[in-house]
Amino acid sequence: MSRPELRISAPLLRRNLAAVRERIAPSTLMLVVKDDAYGHGLPWVVETADAAGVEWFGSYDVRSALDVRRVAGGVARVFAWATSTDAEIDDALVQSIDLGVGTAEYLRRIIARAAALGVVARVHLKIDTGLHRNGVLREDWDGVVADARAAERAGLLELVGVWSHIAEASDAEDDEAQAAFLDAVRVVGESGPIPAVQHLTASAASWWRPELRGTLSRIGAFCYGVRSADGPELDGIRPIAALVASVSAVSEGDAVIGIGSFDGLPSTIAGAPVGTPEGARELRRIDHTTSVVQGWPGMAIGDEVHLFGAGDHGEVSATTLAERIDTVGEEILTRLSVRVRRVVVD
Ligand SMILES: *Cc1c(COP(=O)(O)O)cnc(C)c1O
Q1: 165 CB within 6 A, ligand 1
Q2: pTM of the prediction?
Q3: How far apart are CA 35 and CA 41, in angstroms?
Q4: Distance (Å) from CA 69 to ligand 1 centroid
Q5: Cβ neighbours of residue 339 under 8 Å, at least 6 residues apart?
Q6: Domain covering 241-345, topology
Q7: Residue 100 Cα: closest atom of ligand 1
Q8: Ligand 1 atom closest to the CA of 223, numbered from 1
Q9: pLDDT digits (tens, 9 = 90+) for 86-123
Q10: Stretch(es) of the chain classified as CATH 2.40.37.10
Q11: Binding site membership of 129 for ligand 1 (Cβ less than 6 Å)
Q12: Region(s) of the chain under CATH 3.20.20.10
């Protein structure tokens, strides 16, 4: 094995999905698959989740929403919330992608494209609840809701949902965000039927703050077994991916392995424990295309070293590595280069 592998476990993904869905019920899971499903590979993740009965996918941008549609077929609900170009809007409308809308301008463009194409846009309006990241401000909300309702009456739009995003930094802030969110839902309810779905929470709040959950919960990290940095372990959740490289040379009692910083391994994680056939050893140094690991008795060329994973060989999780360098597990996963082969283990 001359190329490093990200080995991804289908059974573990299925188990995590089941654990998350059980935990958040009766809220429905929207599996977030942005950034190529957090580096795990979107097609495979969507196929596995679709087969496990996941109905909603969150893709961030329209291009990956179309990828989800290709894999999951016409019945899946796919939510894309990046403000998109008119050409992307057209593709989304034709493929029945649900669009997250956080500005009056974007809403106007979607309505115009729906009119031009003769289709009904499925829209989830986003209220700003304090993050100031692409959401309609409270003072503009009534006007935007009125515009959406007018388009609905004209047969150009279906107001499917109301949503927002919260910081998950402190309970008090999240409580305030929820109050602002519920007020926005109330305004929508006064203008017509309450939309079918409301969604506010991602992994951490969905897991730990049941009272904040809406009818949908947008969850990425925990489904992939990535716990929050500085957060606790989670019942029934394990990392689904292991990063594996093999020994290419033995030198002065150390093992040289075929993965380096050019493959996306941060050189600053040197000193971390990694998994070897004889258990945990120190990752001594990370060079461009190779790294050096403290040796073990009987080490041989071709032996496998686990850089991160579920812990079966003495390695730690991506999040534990991330904590050493003040980042999050998602960043360790999404930085891995295309040279790292994604291999699905069933
Ligand atoms: C990434 C993202 C999520 C999922 O966050 P996790 O913490 O990975 O569960 C949910 N909602 C939005 C808007 C996001 O950008």
Answers
A1: yes
A2: 0.97
A3: 9
A4: 19
A5: 3, 4, 262, 263
A6: Lyase, Ornithine Decarboxylase; Chain A, domain 1 (2.40.37)
A7: 13
A8: 9
A9: 999 999 999 999 999 999 999 999 999 999 999 999 99
A10: 241-345
A11: no
A12: 10-224
